[in-house]
TrEMBL record, chain A:
Signal peptide: none annotated. This is Uncharacterized protein. The chain crosses the membrane at residues 56-76, 82-102, 133-157, 169-193, 205-226, 261-279, 345-365, 377-398, 410-429, 436-454, 460-477, 521-541. The lineage of its organism: Bacteria, Pseudomonadati, Bacteroidota, Sphingobacteriia, Sphingobacteriales. Keywords: Membrane, Transmembrane, Transmembrane helix. It comes from Rhinopithecimicrobium faecis. It comes from the Bacteria. The keyword Transmembrane applies.
TrEMBL record, chain B:
The keyword Phosphoprotein does not apply. This is ABC transporter ATP-binding protein. It comes from Rhinopithecimicrobium faecis. Keywords: ATP-binding, Nucleotide-binding, Transport. Pfam families: ABC_tran (PF00005). Residues 6-236 form the ABC transporter domain. The keyword Cell inner membrane does not apply. The lineage of its organism: Bacteria, Pseudomonadati, Bacteroidota, Sphingobacteriia, Sphingobacteriales.
Length: 548, 259
């Protein structure tokens, strides 16, 4: 697919030339990027058993897109006019693609790996920017295709051929529009913000998107008034005309004699053309040097030494060997400073507080008092869900802790006289549990106890101890990868392993739920589980793994 | 008589059937500075990685301080300090944090790490940057950090793979002095480089590698007696002899458009 799209892009060379972009340079950079992607890096040393990317992963992504696309088709079953349903469909379609662009493809736009190679060459900024835009488009296109297949099929089945033709015109324009909107956002932010503020904005933005998606998923079906949507007329509130999806959907009104929104379609087509025009000139100015700045090239002297006291005391208290301590401190620092690690972890974590709120907002019926809601939550045991969802976020973190952009720095582990790989794994677990898991559990458990009462203390303790045991078990029985030692592109675990993790967590949560009303039993289980977690840590530290 | 600290016997390594090292035999004594040179692709980095314990699968025998690296790789690694050619380090850490981490992996006490790191940072003019994250460091600054991390645990053998890469003239002087002083303190230096004049000045013995084989070794004087040339000329002569290179002809062809 990517090669076909590249050929199409090459065939469009008169357009690139016409808008002032050197097609030879453009295709040269683009072909290199496609080639580099094919050559996935292998891990350092001991590399004979390098992990392989699952051959099914692309098909799984396609399947997810097809399912999502099928859900979007439900919009057409609403009893509204075609203009409104296409507008809503395009809004959702563009939102999914936009989210994907922000979450998965931001790295392509801001990639700084090749700046020292490309920037010194006489390549104009607009070629650098456009090579990245087109590369993102190639990546986005297959997603857009699978997402739109159900809708296209539905149109072929349900509507006359003219409407099918219009849809085929509108869908790629919608994909291009959302691509340029995201790029506009980043390039403008790059231009007007300092590099430090931009990096912070990037992280926050991605986190907010994750929170928003999950919140929409959780609350959407509960709070959307379907009666209201059935009577929706998007032509009426004029502020809705600001939505690009409406502009594109208005093409379905062109044939309608009494339409007052048909002319919006000119805007729909003109908007991406305007953004393309801006990207070849104004927006591209200084893009290459700004990306280089994001990579970091200015060295400043420190005003004050970094604080070492508390974490050194903590590591001395909980770690039994110097190797364990070194890993404990390294993992803590990397988690606190690495933007890539934060971007991996916090989106998974943010679903926990959202689910926490969801439980209280969706329990009971209208008119219930807070005390009645609390009684319902206690009776159903739904307060246990966020506690085990927290575990899921941490299992994912443990799975990803071996991945890093600067994975080559892990040579130092291989060159050091480390007697037991278990020491490294114990250092990782202790750091994650003590510096991340327990503080978050304390907050979450504290909130649950404050709202629902002190009788939940034993439940929080049991869930915490069981979660720590499951984290230890996960590490104990998985291949022991050195932390931050694998390139981010390497996929370690199959889809089925992830499902297994989920099933185990659900089973443990269910078992906990089954005994929740027997307070004494919960207390006994909590104490036993805490003791077991200490023993588990000890056993983990002693285990001889093979280095990977 | 001194016991050798490094003994290589018939050391061989192949990748996918392609031989990289062919039955190397080399004995190194404590306090020696070995200049390990050879053209690109000769197998220098592979030798260095085997010595540092990064490559574990090879044929032949490698004894460090009388211990086989295959039998007890940890004991061997504890005796070795390694400075890699590519400055790969955790860039989000500061130099001090990195030293604490590496020192920890070698089992050093914190006070020892702090004392040694502070002194070396001062010697390398990096004191002002001791608490600055390394993501903004130049290549030379990173190289200095790697060198300090390599000697922090007071190894018996220091393996330096292109240690002067990216360093300024003052830093080169400091490194040369460091190498000499470490050798007078009984440390063995395995110095791998392309910069011939530095190798010539600091090395007690030079080992020339070509296509995975040692084609010449000896003190600079011994090699000069044999060929009567500087190290650079010697390097050129020996490697050309064995490869039958006609680089001047090739260069003339390559440069014909440049008149």
């Amino acid at each position: 697919m990517e090669e076909i799209l590249f050929k199409i892009i090459q065939a469009l060379h008169p357009i690139w030339r016409a808008i002032g972009i050197n097609p030879t340079q453009l295709f040269h950079i683009l072909s290199l990027k496609l080639l580099l992607e094919k050559r996935t890096p292998k891990p350092l040393f001991y590399g004979e058993k390098a992990s392989k990317v699952s051959p099914y992963s692309h098909w799984l992504v396609a399947l997810v897109q097809l399912v999502l696309g099928s859900m979007l088709v439900l919009v057409f079953t609403l009893h509204v006019d075609l203009f409104t349903s296409v507008s809503i469909f395009l809004l959702l379609f563009m939102s999914i693609l936009g989210t994907s662009l922000v979450q998965d493809f931001t790295g392509i736009l801001l990639d700084s790996k090749d700046y020292s190679i490309i920037n010194p060459c006489p390549i104009p900024d607009n070629v650098i920017l456009w090579a990245r835009i087109l590369y993102m488009f190639i990546k986005l296109f297959s997603q857009a295709l699978f997402l739109s297949i159900p809708c296209i099929s539905y149109f072929i089945y349900q509507f006359p051929w003219q409407d099918c033709g219009l849809l085929l015109l509108v869908l790629p324009v919608a994909a291009v529009t959302v691509l340029f909107l995201v790029i506009l956002l980043y390039v403008v932010a790059l231009r007007f913000l300092s590099v430090a503020r931009f990096k912070k904005l990037l992280g926050t933005f991605q986190l907010l998107i994750s929170a928003l998606i999950f919140a929409l998923y959780m609350f959407g079906s509960h709070f959307i008034a379907w009666e209201f949507i059935a009577e929706l007329n998007l032509k009426e509130p004029h502020f809705m005309w600001l939505l690009p999806s409406l502009w594109l959907a208005s093409i379905f009104q062109v044939t309608s004699e009494a339409s007052d929104v048909a002319y919006l379609f000119i805007l729909g087509l003109g908007f991406p053309i305007l953004l393309m025009y801006l990207s070849r000139g104004y927006l591209a100015q200084g893009f290459g040097s700004k990306v280089a700045e994001v990579a970091g090239s200015v060295v400043k002297k420190a005003n004050r030494p970094s604080a070492v006291g508390a974490q050194f005391r903590l590591s001395a208290l909980v770690c039994s060997t110097k190797v364990e301590r070194a890993v404990f401190i390294l993992v803590g620092r990397m988690m606190a400073r690495s933007q890539a690690l934060k971007q991996q972890f916090y989106p998974n974590l943010v679903i926990v507080p959202i689910y926490f709120i969801y439980i209280f907002l969706t329990t009971g019926v209208e008119g219930y008092t807070m005390a009645e809601i609390a009684a319902h939550v206690l009776a159903k045991g739904s307060y246990l869900f966020p506690l085990y969802m927290l575990l899921l976020a941490f299992i994912t973190l443990l799975k990803n802790i071996s991945l890093a952009q600067d994975y080559k720095a892990s040579w130092v582990f291989y060159a050091a006289p480390i007697s037991s790989m278990g020491e490294i794994q114990a250092g990782v677990i202790k750091s994650i549990v003590l510096r991340l898991y327990l503080p978050i559990l304390l907050l979450l458990g504290g909130a649950l106890v404050a709202i629902l009462g002190v009788q939940l203390v034993n439940d929080v303790l049991l869930a915490g101890a069981l979660s720590i045991i499951l984290m230890i078990v996960k590490v104990y029985y998985s291949p022991a990868y050195i932390p931050f030692s694998q390139p981010a592109e390497v996929l370690h675990e199959s889809f089925f392993k992830n499902i297994t993790h989920l099933i185990v967590i659900i089973c443990v949560g269910r078992a906990h739920s089954a005994i929740k009303d027997n307070e004494s039993l919960v207390w006994i289980c909590a104490l036993v589980a805490m003791a077991a977690s200490f023993i588990g840590l000890h056993l983990l530290a002693k285990k001889q793994f093979n280095k990977h | 008589m001194k016991q050798p600290i490094v003994v290589m016997r018939n050391l061989s390594k192949s990748y996918d059937g392609l031989p990289i090292l062919k039955e190397l035999n080399l004995t190194i004594y404590p306090g020696e500075i070995i200049g390990y040179i050879g053209p690109n692709g000769a197998g220098k980095s592979t030798t260095v990685k085997i010595l540092a314990g990064l490559i574990t699968e090879f044929q032949g025998e490698l004894l460090i301080n009388g211990i086989s690296i295959k039998d007890d790789p940890l004991a061997v690694k504890a005796e070795i300090g390694y400075v890699p050619e590519l400055a790969a380090l955790y860039e989000v850490l500061t130099p001090n944090e990195y030293f604490m981490f590496v020192g920890g992996l070698h089992g050093l006490d914190e006070e020892v790490i702090i004392r040694r790191a502070t002194n070396f940072l001062q010697a390398f003019s990096l004191s002002d940057y001791a608490d600055v994250p390394m993501d903004t460091f130049s290549k030379g600054m990173r190289q200095k950090v790697l060198i300090i991390a390599g000697i922090l645990h007071n190894p018996k053998i220091l393996i330096l793979d292109e240690p002067l890469s990216g360093l300024d003239a003052n830093a080169v002087i400091v490194i040369k002095e460091l190498i000499t002083q470490l050798a007078t303190r009984g440390k063995t230096i395995f110095y791998c480089s392309h910069i011939m004049d530095v190798v010539e000045k600091v090395s007690d013995r030079i080992v020339l590698l070509q296509a995975g084989e040692i084609i010449a070794q000896g003190t600079m004087e011994e090699l000069k007696q044999r060929e009567g040339q500087s190290l650079e000329q010697l390097f050129s002569t020996l490697t050309q002899e064995s490869q039958q290179l006609t680089y001047q002809q090739d260069l003339n062809i390559a440069l014909q458009d440049f008149n």
